[in-house]
Amino acid sequence: MSEEVQELSELLKIRREKLKALQDAGRDPFHITKYMIDATSKDVMDDFENIKGKTVSIAGRIMTKRLMGKASFCHVQDKCGQVQLYVAKDNLGEEAYEEFKHYDIGDIVGVKGEVFVTQKGEKSVRVDIVTLLSKSLLPLPEKYHGLKDMELRYRQRYVDLIVNPEVKDTFIKRSKIIKSFRQLLDNKDFIEVETPLLNIIPGGAAAKPFKTHHNALDTEMYLRIAPELYLKRLIVGGMDRVYEIGRLFRNEGISIKHNPEFTSMELYQAYADYNDMMDITEELIRNACIAANGIYKISYQGIELDLEKPFRKMTMEESVKEYAGVDFKTIKTIEDARAAAKEKHVEFKQTDGIGAILNLFFEKFVEEKLVEPTFIMHHPVEISPLAKRKADDSEYTERFELFICGREYANAFSELNDPIDQRGRFEHQESLRATGDDEANMIDEDFLTALEYGLPPTGGLGIGIDRLIMLLTDSASIRDVLLFPTMKPLN
Fold this sequence. Notes:
Layout: H1 3-24, H2 41-46, H3 48-51, E1 55-68, E2 71-78, E3 81-88, H4 89-92, H5 94-101, E4 108-117, E5 123-134, H6 150-155, H7 157-163, H8 165-187, E6 191-192, E7 198-199, E8 211-214, E9 219-223, H9 228-236, E10 241-249, E11 261-270, H10 274-293, E12 297-300, E13 303-306, E14 312-315, H11 316-324, H12 334-343, H13 354-366, E15 374-377, E16 389-390, E17 393-397, E18 399-404, E19 407-414, H14 419-434, H15 445-453, E20 458-464, H16 465-473
Parallel strand pairs: 3-5, 6-10, 14-15
Antiparallel strand pairs: 1-2, 1-4, 2-3, 4-5, 7-9, 8-9, 10-11, 11-20, 12-13, 15-18, 16-17, 18-19, 19-20
Helix pairs in contact: 7-8, 8-10, 8-16, 9-15, 11-13, 12-13
């Protein structure tokens, strides 16, 4: 056994012995069911002049402790921050003070006392009564210098939140960003709805689903990869403006940009098109930026961005011509597309048509170059099975994706509402599945039935919430903005 492990083992033993002594004395902290508080650390620090000399009741976790004979100092941490406590034998009484001296870093206490300022000028609480509310049986990591190991921080987020206060700030901003989405959409008469997480057919996106089995129905089911097809059913039913914020599940890789479960916002608006979706996308992102940071100018991983400026717009063809030097307007045959791909060392499958090869060019040469917010528009029909064709060019769609700092943040289109065309697109997707593309769409007969009843002209938009939060909190990894990211089991 190493010296470090032996030391930890001894600490654990001592803490359990302290708990046992309290329990034997009839003062088991785990028997306390509630504690009334009327102030926070923020109240003491920020509203000191108004509450100076008043008695407050505060609760929190002991983070530091200095024993000095008949008087001691400690800092407790609550949801707002830390505040210093002055704990003296004369105020507490000898027995209570002796018990306090045996409290440990990490213990949760409730205190009542007078707000005052020490001789060194620190705003503090002079404790009259202290109550042990919960005993910490494990010491905080690295003797309270912080939890540094990122893997451990993700696995033990509860410890990460205790010892790295800035982490909590990220998740407070996350809540504000999501709330800003709801407020804006609610103010525009959108209705928030909930659609099934368990799907018979995984539709609405090109992604590999998670499979499960429903015992009572004896049928294979899938965790949803997108709520799109259900939300459009609601538009058919006359709910003209709907949105959903919720979890999606995709059985794909894990990286700094991807987690198997993530949060998305999708909205659908009847009698609108993809141009309307561009407007609302800019509005949603700007509102979220103000909610999180108070200003439009942000820095992401050293890149300065001004989100107040109008977002750039260009077609996928234009972007490939600008960044790859290949003009797809001149490419009329699949042979020409394959020749261009071979010349530029773009790998493609034999099932890829001209549109899919154009998208491969975009992914290789363009995507990472799009730093300033940019709408890439008019994707090929081949890679857009749910988007409406452009009236003046039927090989392309009324679709856009938003890119910032080389990453996609939003995907939107004028929704395809022609049931005959939609069936043809689904059938093409099924043919791709037959060749081994397990991300291609399946035919959803019930959705096609809904379209046959009539879907009005509709604009739809999806925004990846986690990626947006990464951008607005300057977080390098998606794991930094998920409280409990997916992790490989330790065993």
